[in-house]
Amino acid sequence: MPDPAELIFTGGPVLTMDEAAPEAEALAVRDGVITAVGRSADVLALRGPGTRVVDLDGRALLPGFVEAHGHPSTMALTLAPPAIDVRPFTVPTGAEVYERIKAAVAAAPGKPVGAYGIDLLLQRDLALPTRELLDELCPDAPLVVVSNSGHAAYGNTAALRAAEITADTPDPVGARFVRDTAGEPTGEAQETAALLVLFEALGDFRDDAQVSAALDWAFAEHARAGITTATDMATDPRNLRVLRTAAEHPDGALRIRSYLIGTPELAAEPGRRFSGHAPAREMFGVSGMKLWADGTPWQGSVATSFPFKDNDATLRIGLDHCTHGPMNYSPDQLADLATAFAAQGFPLACHVHGDVTCEAVLDAYAKVGADDPEALRALRPRLEHCGVVTADQFRRAADMGATVSLFMDHVRWWGDVLADDLFGPEVADRWMSARSAWDAGHRVSLHNDGVCSPTDPLSSVATALTRQSHPSGRIHGESQRLTVDEALCAVTTNPAWQLHLEGEIGMLRTGMRADLVVLNRDPRAVSAEHFREAVAVSATYLSGRRTWPL
Fold first, then answer.
1. pTM for this structure?
2. Omega before 82 within 30 of 0, i.e. cis
3. pLDDT tens digits, one per residue of 409-431
4. Straight-line distance from the first to the last Cα atom of the chain, in angstroms, rounded to the nearest whole number
5. What DSSP line would sit under 482-517, residue for residue?
């Protein structure tokens, strides 16, 4: 006789995401592992005196969501209370942004202050965060304000002084400090390597205990959204220890897979080797290296074959008339970094939005695989975000064994901005071309990019179904919609495969981890236009242990 189950779910549809057996009536769990999936009578036969039976009462049971491209550590450091969250989803007006910052400065006189989340395109009344304005807000201590995209940050004079950024400071590889006509830094830093230098002005503003508490908060926010596994897609190596400790805590709410910030220094480090993919029973693992081939359309820093529009919005984000955005690296630099990390055995994840940038990334991956195409396939190299990647480029990527993850809620939050302000309706219609990627043969995943939009896989699914922008309700790219089954696969099975965790998570099958999400209803029974308001997370389980609600 098999050992009795510790936990049994019955009374609602069990959507396994397993093509061989897509739906069941019940599921049993023991020791964190699924021990049975099938008919209720068969599964209930495993009930023992200590078995807890959960009556779904018509609700649906699915695999726990996998956040393919998240930032739990950044979320902890920038949004966990008492952080100053000024993102447009939280603070819609520019006036309120600066009121919050003023209050924070007043509450901590003489201390460094950081605020996260301004958006010059969604917070249209926001005064530009010039060095002079930030000096007025905080004349005596460092003040750093980070853009919602995470690709730009703005510092006052005290911040520049504390970070030792001067006219003589060289631009880091793949990043830059904006300078005035005299060569003096304006206070704006663009791209990760430059932002990390500016952040030095804030010092170690939290000790390990505070960071640990902030990570617990961030993990709980993921569990609230039904997420059981998340990538930390840009882990600062200095944060690895505390991130691992938080993930491995017995009461931890989230499995973490980190991609390290892929710096030239790490690429050149003698003896650095990838140690291999950790199995799902291990709550923390390093999965690869992250590169940023370009930036963000909201700062005008994506390389496209077509220009940005010439209007007040593009001038506001610092673009010249009808300009094309830059890449962060030259094609040769990008290829050299990719080759170096691949030689160390690291899988690669490369941030890319523009079609010009994508071509350079694909060329870099092709160089990596030139002598051994199957070795490249084994790495499952990734393209992250894929704003205006073309159908031909998706096909080329699929042919070489690369895989793609789409920031679907770009269309929700910035669809109108793309159509009206930055590029035009034709580009907005093919931004995040999920259908083209799927039809090219990709195992497409969808993500929220952590702090850059609210962490919510169901929102990604809803946007993939409708392509509807907020708040106007306009549709951008109806032909690029996914079906509900495809979209659910893109937040469960497919991202599990991208993390080399297929067979362990992402499906509900005997022997796999009991990572589960309970939805308030069967998501297949809801129309696309009502999905967003109708479908919600009721409970989340990580290896059979409930992580939300507690």
1. 0.95
2. yes
3. 999 999 999 999 999 999 999 99
4. 33
5. --HHHHHHTTTHHHHHHTT-TTTSSS--TTSB--EE
